[in-house]
Specification:
This protein is mainly beta. It has a single domain, classed as hypothetical protein yedk fold (Alpha-Beta Complex), CATH 3.90.1680. The chain is 12% helix and 34% strand. It contains five helices and 13 strands. The strands form two sheets. Strands 3, 4, 5, 6, 9, 10, 11 and 12 form an eight-stranded mixed β-sheet that branches. The protein has a five-stranded antiparallel β-sheet with strand order 2-1-7-8-13, with no helix packed on it. The radius of gyration is 22 Å and the shape is globular. The chain starts with a strand and ends with a helix. This is Abasic site processing protein. Its EC number is 3.4.-.-. InterPro entries: SRAP, SRAP-like. Belongs to the SOS response-associated peptidase family.
């Protein structure tokens, strides 16, 4: 799955990679969480366009916007059939830029976060879906979800799922290609770049911590020392008389 990620790179570098002409007002984000606004890229008649979207897809037919908090991820295996996602997959695919994402693993009863990135520290894109939901006040709300698949051999020790990661040669196919071609991209990452990860500060667990300190490498939780056993008394010590 994907429950947190980061985007800290300059907008000019993102424009160069994704080809959008706008100049979004971006700030460095180390701890992007569900229901927050994220940068996304979709295809428009004059080319790729950057736009803000709330992370957590709200289907256009939904009466309750709170459903978005449950739809931050879309499973690749069911995205073409599930009512919440199938229309978005057919018509509204998007790219969600990132430069890191996070996963947790329980060690000795403690949930330890890890930062996952490419060895070159460069940007990449999650395969995303977007929808436009009409609010009760008549306002339009653009929302999005990140597509997930089975973990590859590098990430499987952390978790059995991972986001679908696209290299630049797959961007246009995902945005505008036929459905079958887009579906072929929804697989564990096996591209030319290499993913890596390391344990980081548990400050990441609090979404209010949104600065570079969450990337600090942290020691792994230690196995607790076994409880001391009471000394066994000799038989002559058990007698009161």
């Amino acid at each position: 799955m994907c429950g947190r990620f980061a985007l800290t790179l300059p907008v000019d570098r993102l424009r160069e990679l994704f080809g959008f002409r706008q100049l979004p007002n971006l700030t460095e984000r180390w701890n992007i969480a569900p229901t927050q606004a994220v940068l996304a890229v979709r295809q428009e008649p004059d080319g790729p366009a950057a736009f803000p979207a709330r992370w957590g897809l709200i289907p256009s037919w939904s009466k309750d916007p709170s459903i978005g908090a449950k739809l931050i991820n879309a499973r690749a295996e069911t995205v073409r059939e599930k009512p919440s996602f199938k229309t978005a997959f057919q018509r509204r695919r998007c790219l969600i830029p990132a430069d890191s994402f996070y996963e947790w693993k329980t060690l000795h009863g403690i949930k330890q976060p890890y930062r996952i990135r490419f060895e070159d520290d460069g940007p990449f894109a999650f395969a995303g879906l977007w929808e436009r939901w009409l609010g009760a006040d008549g306002s339009d709300v653009d929302t999005c979800s990140i597509v997930t698949t089975d973990a590859n051999e590098i990430l499987s020790p952390l978790h059995h799922r991972m986001p679908v990661i696209l290299d630049s040669n797959g961007f246009q196919t995902w945005l505008t290609g036929p459905q079958n071609d887009a579906a072929d991209l929804m697989r564990p990452y096996q591209g030319p770049r290499r993913l890596t990860y390391y344990p980081i500060s548990r400050k990441l667990n609090d979404v209010r911590n949104d600065d570079a300190s969450v990337w600090e490498e942290a020691p792994l939780p230690m196995e607790p020392e076994p409880a001391a056993q009471p000394k066994k008394l000799a038989d002559d010590q058990l007698s009161l008389f």
